Amino acid sequence: xxTDTGSQNEALPVIERVKxxxxxxxxxxxxxxxxxxAMIRIVLxxxxxxxFASLSPADHIKIFVPDGDGGIAMRDYTPxxxxxxxxxLTIDFAVHEAGPAxxxxxxxxxxxxxxxxxxxxxxIIGGSIAAWLLIGDETALPSIGRRLEEMQAxxxxxxxxxxxxxxxxxxxxxxxxxxxxxxxxxxPTDAVPYLEKLKTxxxxxxxxxxxxxxxxxxxxxxxxLVEERGHPMPWLKASGYWVxxxxxxxxxxxx
Length: 255
Fold this sequence. Notes:
This protein has 4 helices and 15 strands.
């Protein structure tokens, strides 16, 4: 299917980088909810959230959890929602491996403590963007969900999200003009389901594509869109939110 974007508008997307004060905060669990078999939502609160800022749905904070060997492990997570009035921060944990962060989330209860750091900064994507295409697995859903909820009404956005099962699908409240595509896959390192779906989809000019999944998957999707579909690099951002077999590893391909 010929769906090349062709020439884009002369006005390119603008990525504004904002630095934040880097500090650690000691917080307390105030609520735990199992959103789906593959996702746990934990709400953290505390006076130390005074001054906390997260300006982009792609922001990351560090959480500090026991590593199981007497030490501390650090992991990156998306601030899903922040309420500055209540001083509460919501984080969604994808239960996709039995690492220290997943173990902590599975056992977390109201009253437990958690230390976080960051975010170090925010990258705000703006400019002459006519539409969005968001692609990712369950680890990307917190960022995808937040972006959908923060979008202006009427903005065209397509989402291709791969999750283990139908029970792992989520509902998002958004004013955007959403075209949602759920994929159910067994292997989170297999890019084929994404590529087969993308081959059936039109990508209009001035569409910004955002990709986040396992490293090899994100790389394969990026390669397909750039090399086979001719999507211009300034209109795409791709990241490996996790890498099979490597702990605490994030891959970025376009910076």
